[in-house]
Amino acid sequence: MSAERTLVLVKPDGVSRGLSGKILARVEAKGYRLIDLSLVSATREKLEAHYAEHVGKPFYEPLVEFMLSGPIVAAVFEGERVIEGFRSLAGATEPTTAAPGTIRGDFGRDWGLKVQQNLVHGSDSVESAEKEIGIWFS
Ligand code: DAT
Ligand code: MG
């Protein structure tokens, strides 16, 4: 069986706060292998494809604005059960209450904006990983 791959994004808040290296280091330290890495600027088109399941939700437009607000680090990591493993490292969506020890729990909090500035994205299934890697590394 070939190892799973996942897309990890360090969102604009993580990059602007200088946390990209720390975040990637945690994923590497867990034992996953970095196989692709890029500093990218999002576009509305990329975000619409990436967040297709959220289009039309109240937080969608602020989320897009946030993701357009600065550079993003896109990475592909590989390893057995890396999709689940990275989401466990990332912690719960809301950074204020994400468990300490997780990326969101240790480095994130509510900054008073409508959209959670929650530092990272991780694919949630094999299908979305494949789709998202295609969007950010085409
Ligand atoms: P996750 O990033 O944990 O997979 P998600 O896929 O449900 O979470 O949502 C994508 C992003 O959208 C999330 O990282 C932050 C934002 N978001 C989700 N739910 C939200 C809400 N209720 N209010 C504001 N932003 C939200
Ligand atoms: Mg998600």
Can you tell me about this structure?
Belongs to the NDK family. With 138 residues, this protein is an alpha+beta fold. The chain has one domain: Alpha-Beta Plaits, CATH 3.30.70.141. It has 7 helices and 4 strands, in the order E-H-H-E-H-H-E-H-H-E-H. The protein is globular. 2'-deoxyadenosine-5'-diphosphate (DAT) binds next to loops.
How would you sum up this structure in a few lines?
This protein is of the alpha+beta class. The protein has helices at residues 12-16, 20-30, 44-50, 60-67, 82-90, 103-107, 126-136; strands spanning 4-10, 33-40, 72-79, 120-122. It is built from seven helices and four strands, in the order βααβααβααβα.
What's the structural blueprint in terms of helices and strands?
Elements: E1 4-10, H1 12-16, H2 20-30, E2 33-40, H3 44-50, H4 60-67, E3 72-79, H5 82-90, H6 103-107, E4 120-122, H7 126-136
Antiparallel strand pairs: 1-3, 1-4, 2-3
Bound molecules: 2'-deoxyadenosine-5'-diphosphate and magnesium ion.
